[in-house]
Structures are given as C-alpha cells and as structure tokens.
C-alpha cells in the first residue's frame, strides 16, 4: 500500500513537472481566482441569508404592531361613538326638559355633557339657536366640536397603515436578499462546474461569468438596507 501511494505521488509530481510553465501559471491563476470567488461568495451568502432572516422578523413584528394599533383604534372609535351617542341623547333630553320649563333639571343634564360637547354646546347657545334659523341643529354640528376618542382612532388607523406599509417593504427587502442568495448559489455552481473542464479557455470563461454575477450580486447587497 505505501509503495502504491509513493508511486501515485511521484506520478503526480512528474506530471506537474512536465507541464509547460505558461500552462502551469494559467492553472494556478484559475485556481487562485476560484478560491477568491469562493471566499467572497461564502461570506456574502451568509450575510444575505442573515439579513433575509432579520427582515422577515421585522416584517412579522411590524404586521403584529399594525394589528395592535388597529385593535386600539377600534376600541377608541367604539368608546368615542358611545360617548358621542351619550352626549346627543343627553342633549335631546335637555331639549325636552327645557321645552317643559324644567330649567333646573335641564341644567343637571348640561352638567353631564362631556367636556368637548360642553364646549360646543356653549358655542351653540351663543348663536341663539332658538331664534336664529341659520344656527346648526345641535352642538355636534358645530365646526369646533371634536371627540378626542374618535380623533385618536383616526390617528391610530393612520399609524397602523404606515406600519403595515413598512412591514410590506420589509418583506420585499427580505425577498430581494433571498434572490441575491440565489445568485450567489449560481456563482458557486459555475465555479464548481468550471473545475471539471480541462480547457483553460472554457474554465476561465466560466470563472469570468461567475465573477460578473458575483459583482452584480455584491452591488445589490450594498444597495439594500441593513438591520
């Protein structure tokens, strides 16, 4: 067995020694190029996969955050609607008590208005609505009337839409990193295939194509946002 190994080693050495210097240099250059490409692609592939995973996680977080905001918006809108309904109902009762001359009871209902509705109510009364036909039909129709909960719901919904859009952008970024990972895998395939060719021109062409794809993919990696 040792003799066979020694014979094979001697054969390999003699074969290498018999190669022309130019051919040997070309072969060594091709091997060096392949090693450099493989090293760069290995690091870039790992980085792209890492970033794709990070952006996938960010997408999930942002979608969950958007859902949370929408739930809070629904709660605020429900509370605001109930509060507005209570104000309108109390106002209608105030109208009835005032029409019956029960001013003391009517004042009790005024005290039960929400602060926002009370402000609009005072502004509405200042327009002398019982004698002024151009006055709005009620405080809730006043330009200055506002409901904090309904406004909060609108702000939360706007923010939820923004966060959802950010989540969609994060998903697209993750997809782009995955596509770059596929390009790097193509580079690895070309380098592996090139090693099967004995013709230097073909091997160099395959390595050149791999290098071009690698450079394009690296440019894409640099251009993408990072986490």
Radius of gyration: 38 Å
Distance between the termini: 56 Å
Main sheet attributes: strand count, strand direction, barrel closure: none
Helix and strand composition category? mainly alpha
Low-confidence stretches: 9-17
| Shape descriptor | rod-shaped
Helix-strand sequence: HHHHHH
Ordered list of secondary-structure elements with their pairings:
Blueprint: H1 2-18, H2 21-99, H3 103-110, H4 115-125, H5 148-194, H6 200-223
Question: What distinguishing features does this structure have?
Answer:
mainly alpha; 6 helices; rod-shaped
Question: Could you explain how this protein is built, in words?
Answer:
This protein is mainly alpha-helical. The chain has one domain (21-223). It has six helices and no strands. The chain has helices spanning 2-18, 21-99, 103-110, 115-125, 148-194, 200-223. 20% of the residues are buried.
């Amino acid at each position: 067995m040792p003799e066979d190994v020694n014979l094979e080693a001697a054969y390999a050495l003699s074969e290498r020694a018999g190669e022309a210097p130019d051919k040997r240099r070309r072969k060594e250059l091709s091997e060096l190029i392949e090693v450099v490409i493989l090293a760069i692609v290995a690091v870039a592939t790992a980085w792209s996969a890492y970033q794709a995973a990070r952006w996938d996680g960010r997408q999930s977080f942002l979608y969950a955050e958007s859902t949370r905001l929408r739930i809070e918006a629904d709660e605020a809108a429900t509370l605001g609607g109930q509060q507005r309904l209570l104000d309108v109902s109390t106002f209608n009762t105030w109208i009835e008590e005032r029409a019956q001359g029960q001013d003391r009871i009517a004042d009790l209902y005024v005290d039960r208005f929400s602060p926002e509705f009370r402000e609009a109510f005072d502004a509405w009364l200042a327009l002398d609505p019982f004698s002024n036909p151009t006055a709005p039909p009620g405080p809730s129709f006043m330009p200055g009337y506002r409901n904090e909960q309904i406004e909060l719901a609108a702000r939360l919904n706007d923010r939820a839409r923004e966060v959802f859009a950010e989540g969609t952008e994060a998903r697209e970024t993750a997809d782009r990193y995955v596509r770059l990972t596929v390009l790097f895998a193509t580079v690895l395939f070309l380098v592996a295939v090139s090693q099967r060719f004995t013709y230097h021109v073909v091997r160099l062409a395959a390595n050149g194509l791999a290098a071009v794809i690698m450079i394009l993919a690296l440019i894409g990696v640099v251009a993408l946002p990072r986490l």
